[in-house]
Amino acid sequence: SINCLTDLKSVVGYKNASDTHLISSEAAHICEKILQKNNKNESSTQSLSSQIKCFFEWCVKSDYLIADNRFFDSFYYHRKKSAQSRKSRPEAGVLAILLEASKKKAEEDPSQYFVMDTILRLLLSLPLRISDICTLQRDCVSPDLKPGTFILRHLSKTAHGSYEYKPITYREKALIDKVLDNNQSLVDLALPEFRNMLFLYVVKKLKDRIRIPDKLSFRLYMEMLRKENDLPRVNASNLRKEYQSQVKSFVIKENKDEIQQ
């Protein structure tokens, strides 16, 4: 960083040739050089930039250097740039492709992939863990006291295996009802310990053995979708926020009560 700053200040006609005075554009210049050296890895660049910033702060406090008011703020140049780029909401594009790809998989395989597709949509719609959804039972939905509303009963890892209850809309109930209709014929064929589980599917590679999904099988499904569609890795929490934002926009646009969606 010292060398690149010295090289910059030695350029003929440069506006700040003083070796002891630092300006904000020079901090940005240092960050840019570090970024290039780290093959555009912004995480390591920000870490190293913070260390260099601390060094320059010591130099200024020790009266070896003078820095203008915005010099140290400019060391967060790349962090601000990243925050700005997030405004493009890449999750919106990824979500659309992901849901469409999952829908096609469900049509190709109305057993295993249909189950995974439903888990994905419930996971996006509800504040539940993968394991909470995979262990839903066939009688997990019951009417609420308020007409037209429903309650979902699920086992919770955070509640040490006890049941928790969450309100759901017609949208989630419709997904669950479709699963019940789709795999009703598998109930009697499943192992006794699986017969009360909501999600049952046939694994053709295991001689048509009936299984229930778990966290690992669902993550493998998601990784398959990502690779087949050349999708970047995105934060799951951001995907859920994007999905729920789109649902709310649709409800407002159609002027409908969300509970009826």
Task: Explain what this protein looks like in three dimensions.
- This protein is mainly alpha-helical and 261 residues long.
- It contains ten helices and seven strands.
- It has helices spanning 2-9, 24-37, 42-61, 77-85, 90-108, 112-125, 130-134, 170-182, 215-228, 236-254; strands spanning 21-22, 66-67, 141-143, 150-155, 163-168, 201-203, 209-211.
- Strands 3-4-5 form a three-stranded antiparallel sheet. Strands 1-2 form a two-stranded parallel ribbon.
- The longest helix is centred in the first third of the chain and has 20 residues, at 42-61.
- It starts with a helix and ends in a 7-residue tail after the last helix.
- Mean pLDDT is 81; it is low at 77-88 and 256-261.
What would a concise description of this structure say?
With 261 residues, the chain is mainly α. It has helices at 2-9, 24-37, 42-61, 77-85, 90-108, 112-125, 130-134, 170-182, 215-228, 236-254; strands spanning 21-22, 66-67, 141-143, 150-155, 163-168, 201-203, 209-211. The model is unreliable at 77-88 and 256-261 (pLDDT under 50).
Question: Can you lay out the helices and strands and say which pair or pack?
Answer:
Blueprint: H1 2-9, E1 21-22, H2 24-37, H3 42-61, E2 66-67, H4 77-85, H5 90-108, H6 112-125, H7 130-134, E3 141-143, E4 150-155, E5 163-168, H8 170-182, E6 201-203, E7 209-211, H9 215-228, H10 236-254
Parallel strand pairs: 1-2
Antiparallel strand pairs: 3-4, 4-5, 6-7
Helix pairs in contact: 2-3, 5-6, 5-10, 6-8
